[in-house]
Design a protein that fits this description.
Layout lengths: L8 E5 L20 E2 L2 E2 H11 L4 E6 L4 H5 L5 H9 L3 H13 L1 E6 L6 H6 L11 E5 L3 E4 L7 H12 L2 E7 L9 E6 L9 E9 L10 E10 L1 H8 L10 H10 L4 E5 L3 E4 L3 H14 L4 H13 L9
Parallel strand pairs: 1-4, 1-6, 4-5, 8-12
Antiparallel strand pairs: 2-3, 6-11, 7-13, 8-11, 9-10, 10-12
Helix pairs in contact: 3-4, 7-8, 9-10
The protein binds 1-O-phosphono-alpha-D-glucopyranose.
The site of 1-O-phosphono-alpha-D-glucopyranose has 12 residues, from strand 11.
Amino acid sequence: MQASRPFRTAIVPAAGLGTRFLPTTKTVPKELLPVIDTPGIEMVAAEAAEAGASRLLIVTSPGKDAVAAHFAPQPELEATLAARGKDALAAKVRRAAELIEAGTVTQDEPKGLGHAVGCAGDALGPDEDAVAVLLPDDIVLAAPGEPSVLSRMAAVRERLGGSVLCAFDVPREQISAYGVFDVDDTVDSGDPDVKRIRGMVEKPPADQAPSTLATAGRYLLDRQIFDALKRISPGSGGELQLTDAVALLIAEGHPVHVVVHRGGRHDLGNPGSYLRAFVDFALAHPDYGPALREWLTDRLTFPDEPVRGA
Ligand code: G1P
């Protein structure tokens, strides 16, 4: 995908307090919590880079400098590891800085996702017509052998123009937690998983949701979004919603499509779903997976036995 690069900046909103992970998030930003040994934000940065991004613009809040620091080189640590012959660990230390150039913009007040994304508008170069937004809570898993969903979205923007979002089909009883798409089935995009959108609504009651297709943290937005973000009013939860700015663009005739992602997804945003993500990645890990599988099977088979840690 590196040959065609319809965007080069990926915005990652990371200004939240991470209250669901207190007390850890008193000092450790939620975005740095590990999945096995790698912070969620590094996984998201890798996805952005694979889809063609060369710059990660982290929207941060005062006191969360550690998020951007993760992407700075650590030559002394690397040298120490190299001197000890620990080249694989040194490569892990280097990876984040090598993946992508990271910068920050500050969101001083928590006024919602739309406000956070809007804070990044002035940091774009004059020639940047589109920008990606990746929510770091959402880990969107490409199907085996497939490009990431963001890469597929980039290809759709090149073909059809406008803005392209990622959609997941979720059970109707869970739909009120999401931005929900109103799909226009009358337009043939030439791909059954690429659909034209005629509206979007943030966190509707389940019985009023226009579909069960929800947005899940991946957006490829035309630069016009920054103008739309200046023209919306507070919406769901009293916050400025990115969904409402996309809906405004659609109402004004701007083309918006979704790529329906049929692969997996993890939510790192709350402890329950974070645990599932951790276990899932651990089970697939060549070093830790086999022993964990055995331990879990044993634990589930004999739940009343004392825990054996080893
Ligand atoms: C945000 C967005 C929502 C989206 C969701 C999951 O909501 O506002 O449209 O569906 O992320 O990616 P949040 O989970 O921050 O409340």
